């Protein structure tokens, strides 16, 4: 009788553990489905971009404060020094190979003469591109009146990137 009671006790404990295991599998299944939905809707990259930008800017501010402006490795270069260091690469190439222009009229070499042009090659599936985007947008806004023009070139790496 004693062994029958202990067997029933063992079986009921096994049933409870199986029930717990089923709930764990269900929970993990829901987590996987939510992850797939987040990736499909682009929430993962938006979230990563926001978190990485916040952490990066805090780290930069801390380093600049710790080092001080006179101790930083980056130094301003005057125009005379830059001419000696940088070689003339010739005229700017034409931009007439662009497939489509979004957010502006088509730009030409002549319309950009005398301006600083930043060409940013990016794709929306690249986390490094997404991490750099807030900085590029901030530079574009801050230095627009000083002659900075930012040209973003969408360069998809994979077929799902579009424009193929």
Overview of the structural elements:
The chain starts with a helix and ends in a 10-residue tail after the last strand. Helix 2 (43-67) packs across helix 4. The protein has a two-stranded parallel sheet. The mean pLDDT is 78. It has helices at residues 2-41, 43-67, 79-85, 127-143, and strands spanning 116-122, 148-154. Strand 1, helix 4 (127-143) and strand 2 (148-154) form a beta-alpha-beta unit. It is mainly alpha-helical. The chain is elongated, with a radius of gyration of 28 Å. Helix content is 54%, strand content 9%.
List the keywords.
164 residues; mainly alpha; two-stranded parallel sheet; 4 helices; 2 strands
SSE layout:
Layout: H1 2-41, H2 43-67, H3 79-85, E1 116-122, H4 127-143, E2 148-154
Parallel strand pairs: 1-2
Helix pairs in contact: 2-4
């Amino acid at each position: 009788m004693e062994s029958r009671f202990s067997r029933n006790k063992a079986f009921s404990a096994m049933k409870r553990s199986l029930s717990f295991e089923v709930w764990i599998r269900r929970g993990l299944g829901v987590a996987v489905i939510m992850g797939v939905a987040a990736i499909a809707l682009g929430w993962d990259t938006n979230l990563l971009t926001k978190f990485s930008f916040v952490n990066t800017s805090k780290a930069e501010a801390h380093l600049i404060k710790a080092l001080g402006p006179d101790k930083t490795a980056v130094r301003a270069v005057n125009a005379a020094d830059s001419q000696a260091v940088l070689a003339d690469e010739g005229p700017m190439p034409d931009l007439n190979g662009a497939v489509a222009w979004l957010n502006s009229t088509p730009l030409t070499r002549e319309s950009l003469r005398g301006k600083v042009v930043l060409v940013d090659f990016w794709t929306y599936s690249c986390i490094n591109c997404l991490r750099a985007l807030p900085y590029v947008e901030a530079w574009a806004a801050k230095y627009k009146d000083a002659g900075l023009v930012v040209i973003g070139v969408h360069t998809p790496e994979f077929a799902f990137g579009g424009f193929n």
